[in-house]
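Readers of this paper often ask what the protein records in our data store actually look like. Such a record has a labelled line for the sequence and another for the backbone structure tokens. The tokens are whole numbers drawn from a learned vocabulary of local backbone shapes. We quote a single record here, exactly as it is kept in our systems:
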Amino acid sequence: MPSPDLTATTETLAPIAQRADAPATLPEITAGGLTWRPATKADAPALLDLRNTIAEADAEPYREVIEEITELFDAPWRRFDTDSLLGHDADGTLVAYAQVESMPGDTRTVRVVLFGGVHPARRGEGIGRELFAWQLARGRQVLAESGKELPARLAVYAEDDGPVAKARIVERAGFTPRRFYSELRRDLRHLDADPLPDIAPDGLRVVPFSADLDEATRLAHNDAFRDHWGSEPQTPEQWTHGRTGFAPQWSVVVVDPDPDVDALLADPDTDAATADALRAGQPLVVAYALNERFDEDFAVRGYTFGYTAILGTRRAYRGRRGAPAALVAGMHAMRADGMEFACLDVDTENPTGAQGIYAGLGYAKTHGSRMLSIEL
């Protein structure tokens, strides 16, 4: 079922403080007899153990490493002192956690995402229900505090085959499924018999990712995803943060070696940052495939793989096969390092026809997930 039209303008919206309907105080959590406090970086090992225990119990297709947890605390926009909770039992063992996260670069929709979980051995005691009530209340406070007079969203992400009890808690709180995602994979083991196509983008140059093209790639990404539902511009801090799994050796960008600067500057869709870069004579990245490697997931899935985290094309360059060329080049790099599969996730309502591109390249669905939200 298509997602509802969520194109409310700021002129038709009530003030964010009114729409958020934030409580003056946060609900107390009494279930389970736990002791609650905010998370700190010193909690990273215990938090890693809990999150991986939950992932294993819920048959989630990934595991985390300590670097992924510690880097959460390094982002300056995260406020763990007010936007997180850890629940410990009488022995001091961590058995539940919650995190409420907002993004600094939101300019079209101000978003708050709710994360959390309860140790499998402590489920059924009401801890999850009360903890989620705290998350929702804090999320409403964060929206009200943002001061951004924009459409607003409270969101939760869930695997399609995740715990039924958790899904019920979320849906009873008023969250509705809005977007659906498919994880796809492409077999790289038999490229002699099942080769990848040779793709030569029209008038463009496919090059390995390099640090000097990183900012140009961020600008390309912000343009490419401007018309994707739920996407917001990434600030330089957001863009370079959270790269524990980043595999630059597999990542590829596509550059226009001779852009029509005058035409791009005259195009009203060219954003100000890109215009400044063009005037300064900086490289113009027009498509990209940024890939990641997660060795800790190989045993969980039973095969080695590379993961395409972000793939996109500037809107003015769509149809010139830049993104497929970058994707194929990245898959060849993965295969050269011995990876058996290439994986990625796609929004099932992607506006660029990505599903057809992936199917044509031999990708097939392995499982799915969804985003549930309250739109304000």
